[in-house]
Amino acid sequence: MQFKRAFINYPYRKFNFAEIFLFWVNERISRSQFLILSGVLVGLTAGLAGVLLKVIVHHIQLFISTEVPFKERLFVYAIFPLVGITLTALVVKYFFKGDEDKELSFVLKNISQNQSKLKSSKMYSQIIQSG
Description:
This protein is mainly alpha-helical and about 130 residues long.
């Protein structure tokens, strides 16, 4: 019933899909079950991201070792980190509009002041900047 009361008290436009899903989940499972489920989902997502990163790096290394001549490999291995850092800086500057708040304390402060809500652009910018 709490799920229905939330929609009666507030107009539908104020809710996005994630909030509707959280209302639905909170009505059906306890807080400890929710924390366990959240931990499992975060762990699976982080594991999949790690595997994806490892596969991409493996394919890049395989490409360099098979396609690039031996004398040029040292140059290519030296230039790849510079290209990655430059691309990251350009994405942060132009795509995230120069958002330079890189610290974990900024994220924790923003979460505590906004009822555990963090803008999706802030989440992605923190992920990209940490890489």
